[in-house]
Design brief:
Shape: elongated
Structural class: alpha/beta
CATH class of the largest domain: Alpha Beta
Strand order of the largest sheet: 1-4-5-6-3-7-8-2-9
CATH architecture of the largest domain: 3-Layer(aba) Sandwich
Helix content: 25-40%
CATH superfamily of the largest domain: P-loop containing nucleotide triphosphate hydrolases
Radius of gyration: 27 Å
Largest sheet: 9 strands, mixed
Amino acid sequence: MTGSSVEFEEGPDANDVRRHAKKLYTASEYDRLYRKILYYAPNPGQLRFHNAQASEVQLLANNQGGKSVGAAAQITWDLLGWYPSFYEGRRHKVPSIIRPNECVAWVASTTSEMTRDINQAKLLGDLTQRNGLGTGMIPLDHIVGKPLMARGISTFVDMVSISRMNGKNASLSFKTYQQGRQSFQGDAVDFVWLDEQLPREHQDIYGEVLARLSTTAGRIYATLTPVLGRTDQRKRFEEPHPDREIVRMTIDDATHIPAEEREKIKSRYPEAERMTRLYGVDAQGEGAALNFNEADCSHTLRLDQIPHHWCFIAGLDFSHAGLSQSAHPFGYCLIAWDRDADVAYVVDAWKIRGALPASHAERIKANTVLCPVAWPHDGTRQSLSDGVTIANMYRKLGLQMRSQHATHKDGGYSFEASLLDIQNRLSSGRLKIAKHLHDLWSEMRNLHRENGLIVKVDDDVFSALRVAIMDLRYARPRYDGAFGGQERRSGIARGSDFDPWSGR
């Protein structure tokens, strides 16, 4: 734990531990104890994390789901310069800079105790035990000499040297968020593992870490259960970026926990914490507005697998500020409805920022079926230039807009009523969402209340879903073919305002 006020002493000698262990254990016992990385078998969530390609990877995970074990394995592979046959992720490239070590890694967590008891133990083993060094993910045979210990903090390693598979040297240092931004200054670093969320008062640490990677093309692994909510660290990953990636690990990925025990764990947490503790969802105000199990509410149906007699309806959420930076995104959602079973399947959903209505309409017509389009009440607003309503603007662009804005069956468009309808459908298995629709899943996870009211931020795709569900009774079987590349038949007779789908 580098710092001017901290003194150092040497830890246990890896050579002594090795000589003693080889006398004490058989070859197979030695391998199991001191070469654990060879026996590591990632669960589905850990494998998604390992196979990520971005420079900045944020692993949002449930408690006790294996996020620390997975990150310890990743750092071990990076330090050794060795990767298993199943690995499809990004590999270390040695930077063209002059320094004593070919690879440098930092690991940090909230406090010195957490860093020592979790991260250090996962990587180096339990140093309170006589032969504990080397019983973590990093093989004892690759630990060089004696770790440098921080005096005054029992068994806390400051730095340890690692021998890579090519014979070159690497170094691994341990830090804490309590040390503040200054302790993350200085060296060029290849890999940084930030375990758990940065406290709000130490969000500036992330910027320092980014600076350390500028000459190495290095990587940050941030593993966390987001109990602090949407901090700056979390918000950084909300806007799409080609070199940032969010990986989500849930209780359902924790295959090391028996299925029946997982169900018991789910019931233990208070409702307000359940989505965060089990599914890695940002903790929000008074708690999540929706409660659902993603595994139970997801589907993998493709559009071409949907029976021809099922009905379709699309929902929109308008953007009112055009190309301006203040404009919230335009949201779209497409539902296939099995009317007989009353199950709504969301088959497509997306949002787009900084585009005009013509671009929205072209994307919809190119990628979806011809069906009624539900729209919210603000679609009745008129343009200041020509007096055309927003809904009519999209109608002129070729979309089959419903004749009036979406309402509940008994009238009105209460947000709370539609939220209750969606919750009831999720709970009863009558609303299924395609697994790949990440924007919608993210918005649903993060929808929350403060002072009893829904916080309507980053809810563009969810709003489109809400509108489509309100008008679900107007869903109709698709026309033959799709919009894209075909002559479209209008749903409204030429010269008439009559809508054959609704009878209005």
